[in-house]
Amino acid sequence: QVQLQESGPGLVKPSETLSLTCTVSGDSITSYYWSWIRQPPGKGLEWIGYIYYTGSTDYNPSLKSRVTISVDTSKSQISLKLNSVTAADTAVYYCARERWGLDAWGQGTLVTVSS
Amino acid sequence: DIQMTQSPSSLSASVGDRVTITCRASQGISNYLAWFQQKPGKAPESLIYAASNLQSGVPSKFSGSGSGTDFSLTISSLQPEDFATYYCQQYKSYPYTFGQGTKLEIK
Q1: Least crowded by CB within 10 Å, which of A95, B19, B25, B105?
Q2: Coarse DSSP helix, strand, coil percentages of chain B, rounded to the nearest 5 percent
Q3: How is residue B44 annotated by DSSP?
Q4: pLDDT for the residue A100
């Protein structure tokens, strides 16, 4: 049974960089695509981007200029960096496996952007 | 980007009812359509992929149909644990996009 666990600071100051890690257990990180998705409080879901273990990525054009997703296969981790954050980036951030669609999700981590 | 539009945005129903939620894509997506259930404070859970295939462990009371631009999720014999928010999502092309959600509430 795959498990995904997001981790990182829960509070980030405006204009700084949001950095999160997703640790994958119970499955090989080299077998699937892995996505980041976010959800502002009380709102809907927004796909941020994906990565494959080879390093291949694609990002949502709405965030592309500010986002970087990377993978560390030795640690079974995928990472998300979002720079120049504003209050609009306050959200729960999820990582997910893409096997049969986005079939497995982490529990999510709330990141608040505030000074 | 492909826009996904769900209807209704909210729905009131009673235990035992059968309900249907619809999802329309702004362009054809074949059957690259998934449905998710989300309860308050929890991560979304995948119910259906490829428009009509149940994820492992999902009860058969959930069913999906459609192809092209029009899709639906039907939940039969509603139970208290089914009251949640439901999202559709297309994965035909990047960026993946979600519907705005349908909140299913107890009448």
Answers
A1: B105
A2: 5, 50, 50
A3: -
A4: 86
Are A1 and A26 spatial neighbours (Cβ–Cβ below 8 Å)? yes
Choose among A46, A62, A100: nearest Cβ to B55.
A100
Which tens digits make up the pLDDT trace of A56-114? 999 999 999 999 999 999 999 999 999 999 999 999 999 999 998 999 999 999 999 99
Dihedral (CA of A8, A98, B56, B101) sign: positive
Question: What pLDDT score was predicted for residue A61?
Answer: 97
pLDDT tens profile A32-72: 999 999 999 999 999 999 999 999 999 999 999 999 999 99
Amino acid, res. A106: G
Please tell me the distance from the alpha carbon of residue B17 to that of residue B52, in angstroms, as a whole number. Answer: 21
Residues on chain A touching B87 (C-beta within 8 angstroms): 44-45
Alpha helices in chain B (DSSP H): none
| Contact status, residue A92 vs residue A3, Cβ threshold 8 Å | no
CB of A58 within 8 Å of a chain B CB? The answer is yes
Give the chain A residue nearest B57 (alpha carbons): A103
d(CA A24, CA A104): 11
Q: Which residue matches tokens 């949001």?
A: A18
Using the Cβ of B44 and the Cβ atoms of chain A, whether some distance falls under 8 Å is answered with: yes
Stretch (H or E) spanning B53: strand B53-54
Distance from CA of B50 to the nearest CA of A (A): 8
| Structure letter (DSSP) for residue B55 | P
